[in-house]
Each structure stands twice: as C-alpha cells, then as structure tokens.
Amino acid sequence: MGIVSSQFNWVSTPSGYAQVTNWRAKQQAFNKQIESSLASTSIVFANASADYGSGMSEIAARRAAVRVQGELKAKVAKAQLDMRV
C-alpha cells in the first residue's frame, strides 16, 4: 500500500487573522470569567474574615458579661453575709 494523500475541500479553514481574532476573543472571555471568579472569592474571604472578627468580639463580650455577673453575684453574697453578722 502506498502513501495516500487526500484533501478535504469541503471543510473550510479560517484564515490566520480569523484564528487570531477568535483566540483573542476567547482569551478575553476567559480573563473576564477569571476576574469574576477572583472577585467572588475575594468577597467570600472578606465576609469570612468579618464574620470571624464579629464572632470573636461576640464571644469576648459574652465572657466579659459572665465574668462581671459572677463578680456582682460574689459581691452581693458577701454583702449579705456582712449584713447577717
């Protein structure tokens, strides 16, 4: 069997300019998609950081409130003992 060479004349090939133009358009679309994805990721991390900060401050406030309430209860108990004696 010999080497067979055939051409597919019915398949049109885009010109070099059309290929470059198509490639640029695809790259621009890809870049916009990546920018959008990065922006949404950045927002997610910013929100997570804010949530973490507010959560930590809420925990600190609760602990401080519990501590102050405990100190007040101790003072009230001590005052009641002092009044009895």
Fold and architecture overview:
By secondary structure, the protein is mostly helical. Helix content is 81%, strand content 0%. The chain is built from one helix and no strands. The chain has one helix at 16-84. The longest helix has 69 residues, at 16-84. The radius of gyration is 36 Å and the shape is rod-shaped. The N and C termini lie far apart (120 Å). The model has no long low-confidence stretch (mean pLDDT 88).
- Outline the biggest β-sheet: none
End-to-end separation: 120 Å
Compute the number of strand runs.
Answer: 0
The helical percent reads over 70%
Alpha-beta classification: mainly alpha
Please report the number of helical segments: 1
Question: Which spans of ≥5 residues are poorly predicted at pLDDT below 50?
Answer: none
- The overall average pLDDT, rounded, is 88
Beta-strand portion reads under 5%
The SSE string, one letter per element, is: H
**Spatial shape:** rod-shaped
Radius of gyration: 36 Å
